Amino acid sequence: ERYLAKVKALLHQELSEENGDATSLLQASNGCSKNGAYGSDEDSERAGPDGEEDSAMEMEEAAASSSSSSSVPTPRARKARRSRSNGESKKSPASSRVTRSSGRQPIILSLFSKGSNKRKSEEVNGEVKQEAMSVEKEEEELEEKEQEEKRIKIETKEGLEIKDEITQVKTTTPAKTTPPKCVDCRQYLDDPDLKFFQGDPDDALEEPEMLTDERLSLFDANEDGFESYEDLPQHKVTSFSVYDKRGHLCPFDTGLIERNIELYFSGAVKPIYDDNPCLDGGVRAKKLGPINAWWITGFDGGEKALIGFTTAFADYILMEPSEEYAPIFALMQEKIYMSKIVVEFLQNNRDVSYEDLLNKIETTVPPAGLNFNRFTEDSLLRHAQFVVEQVESYDEAGDSDEPPVLITPCMRDLIKLAGVTLGKRRAVRRQAIRHPTKIDKDKGPTKATTTKLVYLIFDTFFSEQIEKDEKEDDKENAMKRRRCGVCEVCQQPECGKCKACQNMVKFGGSGRSKQACLQRRCPNLAVREADEDEEVDDNIPEMPSPKKMLQGRKKKQNKSRISWVGEPIKSDGKKDYYQRVCIDSETLEVGDCVSVSPDDPTKPLYLARVTAMWEDSSGQMFHAHWFCPGSDTVLGATSDPLELFLVDECEDMQLSYIHGKVKVIYKAPSENWSMEGGLDMEIKMVEDDGRTYFYQMWYDQEYARFESPPKTQPTEDNKYKFCMSCTRLDEVRHKEIPKVAEPLEEGDGKMFYAMATKNGVQYRVGDGVYLLPEAFSFSMKPASPAKRPKKEAVDEELHPEHYRKYSEYIKGSNLDAPDPYRVGRIKEIFCNIRSNGKPNEADIKLRICKFYRPENTHKSMKASYHADINLLYWSDEETTVDFRAVQGRCTVVYGEDLTESIQDYSAGGLDRFYFLEAYNAKTKSFEDPPNHARSSGNKGKGKGKGKGKGKGKSSVSCEQSEQEPAELKLPKLRTLDVFSGCGGLSEGFHQAGVSETLWAIEMWEPAAQAFRLNNPGTTVFTEDCNVLLKLVMSGEKTNSLGQKLPQKGDVEMLCGGPPCQGFSGMNRFNSRTYSKFKNSLVVSFLSYCDYYRPRFFLLENVRNFVSFKRSMVLKLTLRCLVRMGYQCTFGVLQVGCWVTPRR
């Protein structure tokens, strides 16, 4: 009572003395908020970007009164609902019970002391300061001594007294403040509907202890339980209440869980088989959670929709809410049951219209116990966002061969009518499961540090993981970010049929309308959302076959629009070649670039360079060397729409196909290219005027390689008709033609030769060769592999889960692996003599000595498990094969003739084999090889039948020097290894002798220490790669430890393997935040490449890097490297080919 009396005295004294000054001071300092309420300067400083207040006190105990003191009035009642005054909001006893756990509460006097700082009267300030000190000390003593119930009563009385005093202030100042919100559940603290959790009974158990209770066990002491603990246990919970950590009862369907807000629930937990919602037989549990996920199931035609929670320990199916939580839960029931109706109706009715769906909803009777008696169209549209998200989630849980429900016509109509925003909560829903004990301690991964070029390319894909520059918020980038760029819709080409396409310049339009193709408008298509969260496709997508730009028919010429300019410059047979031509009053000459009209008007205009023009019996013609647009390369829709690529495709065309003249600029790399990394270069290479393009690379359509354009110059003789594509294609065809050389002698109707060539490779008598597996067979027939049993029909009632085995495919099975090449030694090269006495050089034959592999012997495949992969067995068996079966050249030597160890010999180069024994297939025995077999350099005159003198040990090295080019001693490349680990990738380059690792970056200290021990001369940075890159880009020479940072021009090779967890097919949570940050390290690695501009760049990752997100990461990576000016390609390698014991 003494404490309350002093508080009242302070209020009356200050209100009576400062009544006039307080009014004028509030009018000068308070600002008007958006909803018309006024707030103090202190309130506006605490307000966040969305208007919420970040109070220094705990929000649940004093936020309602933090914005009010004797000088700050209470908020007025809002129109939408009745607001409770600050004093009333403090009356709930439950509030005090919940908030005691968060620490010591601020007392009311502290609020008055804050308000007194704004007052101008020194006399009053002095009194307030002195009395505040004494009263605060007395209040602290009361707080330590009095019991819990007494404190609650005192706080209630305080609230009543303050309410009376504040009512007096309300008559003097009409200002209002913004109603405060709870920082967790986002409910208004002055809302009369806000309820507090009343607490758990005394016998309630914690979750781990509750789960071990015998009443929840499915087995007795004599029965064995489950042998696997991969799945969480499932129970039911009744009389439940859901609340946040401040004790506010709140709904769980408003996105709080998705935003990592900790929600808990309490109730009576019952075994999974118990369907009785009463409390009998249940185990009272308290503070279960936090809730990691909530879900809906029961889409099997039953009456009720089952709702469940998932915590770190178990899954819980909800039964009946508690009395206090029932009103909140009832509001969620309508949309939950509506989503059940929609999903079940569309399961078997995929072609229905929106009207059919609406009729189904309106004729469905809601289950008993709900607060409504019918479903309406208004309720469907009101809850459309929730219903669509549940349909998406249902599609995700389905099998891969099931058509998604979301793309049905009625769902598309619902999305359009209700204005549903696809992907609104999907990305958030995939965030990592929270670990409450680490929330405050773990700062999380840093955002990727990028150069401007890499940022502009990857910003759409890793918008939340890349550190943004506020200066880059221009309109163009903002428009770009609206497209996801990942889904099938964004990556498909323009249709060429809609109005927007027909207006594009590339389709022959004017280009005035800047609208995108109507079929590529990403936000309004359901396919986009289905793609964003689909699981990793383990199959590498097939690359589209190269698009041939051939015309299917001849076009009728209109000679009135085409006329030659000048006289012919050359006459070659029946062709008269010209230098210039006029088409539609536009003059073209040889070397100009033109757009060509396709036969199909829905296809974009082709682009080509005119390499020759002539007139003959076919009409007025020109030779077109085609350009390939970036969309037709592996880059797809990620490419620059103005970038073209040279390809080896050309064609003779009629001049009437020319649509108009265009400008194609060659962007050659600058002389100072290596020092331009990291500069603020524009992503646009040329201005988009509809007629200007650029190219900087030649594209190999077969191997998806980007290379520098070939430098083939015309001669004076063919300058008037020189075509670079024709020249290169002629060279390739010429190399592919098999040829024989160095004839020896003729006999037995054959002409023998010492050498044959194919694809630029020379093959001589005595050389080892690779042959196709079907080129010849062995005497020993291999055991046929076990055939997979055929899938037979089973009784689904007896085996209800058998449908899950929808495929007999075994990942990684060797049954489908192709056989390795056969290996042989050339004994003779010959051609048969024709009837006219000339050799048939188009049909070249080889006489081959067979080599056995260990698995080709009678020991079968098991023999290869313990044998060297390069080990062969000599045999006296011979056969004749066609030269077309030869696939390459190899080296086969006798192991005893080597001047070095077998290991060093095998590691010294590719395609090296050896044999130590001969195999006799008839006796199934291993013997010593004959002398002529040991003479690996027996290059006689063709018919020597293997007779010759054996060579000494030095002969092997002599022969190898003839077959293999001399090893060039080149200086080792100065290398930076990012994500180095313990140094495996660097060690491979060291063994290859091409690099010297001078710098390495590894954040994990044990791995970094191992790298230091393996490479003593390397500077190892044990820091975040993003932090180091930021230091280098800011001009720093050393890091925080004084280690020298590599500068521009220092790094000649950059290698690294960014973390693969986010791309791996074993990671089923690769769409969560943690994995996204791991994946964004690819962007950091590319930024290193862009800044340092090394001569060579290598990125290594798992196989699924190619197929992840429809190959989007791979395409963006290639797009970055091409834009930097690198020649680049990619490949999926089988590491077993490099004798590595893993897939």
UniProtKB/TrEMBL annotation:
Residues 586-710, 802-930 form the BAH domain. Residues 21-33, 92-104 have a biased composition (Polar residues). InterPro entries: BAH_dom, BAH_sf, C5-Methyltransferase, C5_DNA_meth_AS, C5_MeTfrase, Cytosine_MeTrfase1_RFD, SAM-dependent_MTases_sf, Znf_CXXC. GO terms for biological process: DNA methylation-dependent constitutive heterochromatin formation; methylation; negative regulation of gene expression via chromosomal CpG island methylation. Residues 62-71 have a biased composition (Low complexity). The keyword Transcription applies. Its EC number is 2.1.1.37. It is found in: Nucleus. Residues 119-136 have a biased composition (Basic and acidic residues). The active site is at C1060. The keyword Repeat applies. Keywords: DNA-binding, Metal-binding, Methyltransferase, Nucleus, Phosphoprotein, Repeat, Repressor, S-adenosyl-L-methionine, Transcription, Transcription regulation, Transferase, Zinc, Zinc-finger. Transmembrane segments: none annotated. Residues 550-559, 940-952 have a biased composition (Basic residues). Residues 40-61, 137-146 have a biased composition (Acidic residues). Pfam families: BAH, DNA_methylase, DNMT1-RFD, zf-CXXC. Belongs to the class I-like SAM-binding methyltransferase superfamily. C5-methyltransferase family. This is DNA (cytosine-5)-methyltransferase 1. The lineage of its organism: Eukaryota, Metazoa, Chordata, Craniata, Vertebrata.
